[in-house]
Amino acid sequence: xxxxLFEQFKCKGLSLENRFVMAPMTRTFSPNxxxxxxxxxYYARRxxxxxxxxxxxxxxxxxxxxxxxxxxxxxxGETAINAWKNVVTSTHRAGGKIxxxxxxVGMIRKPGTGHNPDAQTDGPxxxxxxxxxxxxAPTDEEVADMVSSYARxxxxxxxxxFDAIEIHGAHGYLIDQFFWGVMNxxxxxxxxxxxxxxxxxxxxxxxxRREIGDDMPIILRWSQWKQQEYTARLVETPKEMETxxxxxxxxxxxxxxxSQRRFWEPEFENSSLNLAGWAKxxxxxxxxxxGSVGLNGDFFGAFAxxxxxxxxxxxxxxxxxxxxxxxxxxxxxxxQDPEWVKKVKEGRMDELxxxxxxxxxxxx
Length: 364
Prior knowledge:
About 35% of the residues lie in helices and about 15% in strands. The chain is α/β, with parallel strands linked by helices. Helix 3 packs parallel to helix 5 (about 195-210) and helix 5 runs parallel beside helix 6.
């Protein structure tokens, strides 16, 4: 086992007992957007079993079209905010640290869905991933409010006592749609080359920072792949990645959460570094790696209800020992078994559970 996995980690005001992070995983257990005691207990169980940092499921901002499912948790409105206070209190009482993942689904949303069925859908240009224009491009004022919606959520996260925030800029959702030239055909601000397209997220980071101050870390989750196109790539070379990520570094991001399907896969030719490894090398910032940790199948199969077997952690130990990244996010293995980190810490590897696709419909 890599001893680094159980070393403390510190970033600004955030101190973690180890390097394990609970990956944000969409759950649909918050009727009308309100996380109940069952959700609070779900996170507290992981906190009590030595997960260093819990990043919540995506929780949507107050833009009316931010969600496409009425059971996604909201991060606005008195009832939902009070419910999140219960989640924070329960997690802290169990000894854990927690960050909300601030989320807007963007053009993924179909009209008539989510918490406000009559709301218009948000996106950079009103264009789908297939290139079809289905609505007018939003005005500059509407886009500015999309940016501000994240900041309003960040302000509430600070007030509620969360330990950090994560901005969801990955997997083909709203921020990633601004990154992606296929869907972002804006003219003027936030449109054009990949640096200009990255400035939407940079402004989100800056506005969030103004609301939460300097001591609360901001995590940005990003990915090359999109759920609309698994082979999509925002950057093709280390130089392009360095230029792209510098936009967020300059905006004040603290940690980069680099999402890929399998954490052990190299990002570029002629190097063994994965996405998080390259991001750390190019920016000097702490990074989180993620992708099929502890399992032999990736998460796309999980969406179809497929199961996966527990897998050895030797590759993770090797990469941590080389200090390629700072933190490792665990998804389905922790979804299946709240004591997964505790078992790894105690060397109880034979007790690690296989992932059952039914876990998506259960709050273990």
